[in-house]
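User: Need the bound-state model for calcium ion:
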Amino acid sequence: MGNRFTRSVATLAGLVLAGTGLAAVNAAPAAASAYDCPAGYFCGWSGESATGQMYKTNKSVADLGGWNDKIRSHVNRTTSIACVYEDKDYVPSGGYFAEEPAGPGEYSSYPTATASSIKFVRTERECSQKAYPRWFSETSPKALGFGDMNGDRKADVIVRDEAGRLWFTPGDGSGRLIGSGGWNAMNALVRHGDFSGDGREDVIAREGSTGKLWLYPGTGTGSVGARKLIGTGGWNAMSRITAVGDLSGDGRSDLMAVEKATGKLWLYPGTSAGSLGARKLVGTGGWNAMNALAGVGDANGDGRSDLYAREASTGKLWLYPGRTGALGGRVLVGTGGWNAMADLIAVGDFSGDGRPDLAAVSNEKYVIDGYAGHLGWLLTYRGQGNGLLASGQRTDGEWWGLNGLC
Ligand SMILES: [Ca+2]
Ligand SMILES: [Ca+2]
Ligand SMILES: [Ca+2]
Ligand SMILES: [Ca+2]
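Assistant: Bound-state model below.
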């Protein structure tokens, strides 16, 4: 992220000439204006205030040629993000601006003309990175029954980008598009094992506008198939939803959710039909004090699925050991600081020792060398097999600019 420049805020409204009804005498030729840039184009001007000569393009340009280091003001009137690089060939290390789409008459102004190439992308991180982050996983000695969409015993992560696309990252640093768009309509994305009964891991998503819950059956290759409605509505009454594995004891994966109005924790048992059965009360109240839940699998090695929960007021991480259809007395796993994490990712064993691990991505509260603001770090925590975690390893600093992980 070190080379990523903050977008200039020098966006000004263009001048509007008021009609006076008087005939102009000795009128000068019409000057270039920010309004001259047509919709669908990126435009640059030789002058600082959208004046002078105007350049325009609706395609990426690796070398601005005669316009190299000549653009002093510009506007992006496409529907993409425009990466404006100081170097040719979209090389990000020399610095760049990520220009979001703007309206008619707007422009950004720069005292020094530095632009040498322009690239159109869907998400800001693609100015310098792939759309998906680098995820690496070792092969686990055993199948844990979750965290593995393609059955190779390597823990996978599913990533949603800011453009609403879904990516499958299998643990070798690569990524594959599995959802071409529209996923930003979902305000919860969870997975933990198989719900549909075919042995392949599935994804469950909540639709924000309707409160419906959808099951996206895994194909066994990392992709998901045609969705099936498993909750007809009302799920927006729940704050946090997590898939936890089998808590009810019938061998099928279950869902847990916290009811906003009451702070109650409910268990929704998976059924053989791939739907959810009648809910059971697991926590009588107080669960609104937790601002993240993670179905981490059997973290303490007793054969039952467990739950991690983060306490908002303290930033502590707690283990709630699974019992049959219930949770046991909690155990402190992290003494504090967990509020500096945006996402908790419980995808099973990525360290390759057969024990489930936990990964997390930092938010702006994360401190490195005494300074906060280090968002977008992937931290990996090895499970110790007793429910506790080894200290976090700072693994990769380019997990910024995403919109959800499961
Ligand atoms: Ca896998
Ligand atoms: Ca399935
Ligand atoms: Ca357990
Ligand atoms: Ca492990």
